[in-house]
Design brief:
The chain is mainly β and about 375 residues long. It folds into three domains: about 170 residues, no CATH class; about 120 residues, no CATH class; about 50 residues, no CATH class. Helices cover about 5% and strands about 40% of the residues. It contains two helices and 25 strands. The strands form six sheets. Strands 1, 2, 3, 6, 7 and 21 form a six-stranded mixed β-sheet that branches. The longest helix is centred in the last third of the chain and has 14 residues. The two termini are about 25 Å apart.
Amino acid sequence: MNIYKLILILFSSLIISSCTETFYPKVDETTSVLVVDGRITNEIGSGEVRLFRTVKFTDEFSLKPEIDAMVFLHNDQGETEVLSEIEPGIYKSTSNLIQGKVGHSYWIEIQTISNKKYESTPELMPSAFEINSLYGEELDVIKEDGSKEKGVGIYFDATNQNNKENFLRWEYRESYRWDSPFKVEDKYSDKPATTCYPLNEFPLINIYNATDLSKKEVKRLSISTILQHEVKLEHEYLMDLNLYSISSGNYQFWKKMKAIHQSNGNLYDVIPANIIGNITACENDCEVLGYFEASSVRKKQQFFSKSEFSLEFSDLDKNCEKFMKRYDEKTPPPPPNIFKIIISYQENSELVYIVRWRYCYECNVKYPINKPSFWP
């Protein structure tokens, strides 16, 4: 999960308490914090820095790109590369002058258009954790309402061959083939599609500390869960995993970010001032939040299908069941781009519609028709 996305949650937690009464802290609305989200890995051309600024609390929660900055990437071999702004606020290595290598240190310098300067402390790139396996296991899941449902948990095992690294972070995404279960009759789109490829990215912070392990071999680290009522395993299901070996400082940063992300926004929860990254401002009147990490990465993909498990998974998305909508006579009927009307009738002063979601007939109303770029 990117740091700049978490900042929205982080700042929201300042003004929303777990009670029914909203808490509004006293803040200086003129204060603008630079948010830095940067990384270099052992992959070619991986150097990237995202720069954004927080907006006033009176504005809608968002982050403003920091444009036209100068971003310099350095290594311990005396090399410097100027990163190019490929999109507003996003700076990336384009010349590939500096390649991330295990055992070497990297840091950045930033100079904004207003001539404010920032710098990160050097990060030593640790050796990678190799992904040994990516697999699924059947399990019983306790849901938020206390009920139980069977499902499949997706896990991975990994090993650090040098047996000296301790800290991991992982990101993952899923995609699967989804076939519309009902025949298209009245078309909404010009070219209705009945086969699509949903893509889900998960805004979670996943970290692990292997310090207590004498052998740096981790097992059964959890990724995702597929419940029995879901149709993800009906055809093709793809799990895409990125596993990062990170520094101790980076681990501590993400640990604190996770504490805020998972909190209820209570008054006594950790606030942004407690989050210390490795970026410092060269002047006292500048505020900055974020981290520039040097991490080694390993990637693995795995297809899964329901034939691998003993569970009977649903072949019909529960959201594609019929349901009722009621309107008064002055209200227009359900919009055809959202709903497929199956039956309509009048009941007293109300118009009653039995409907299904339109995407159950034309999946391109909701999902992309092409496979994601990372699909093999």
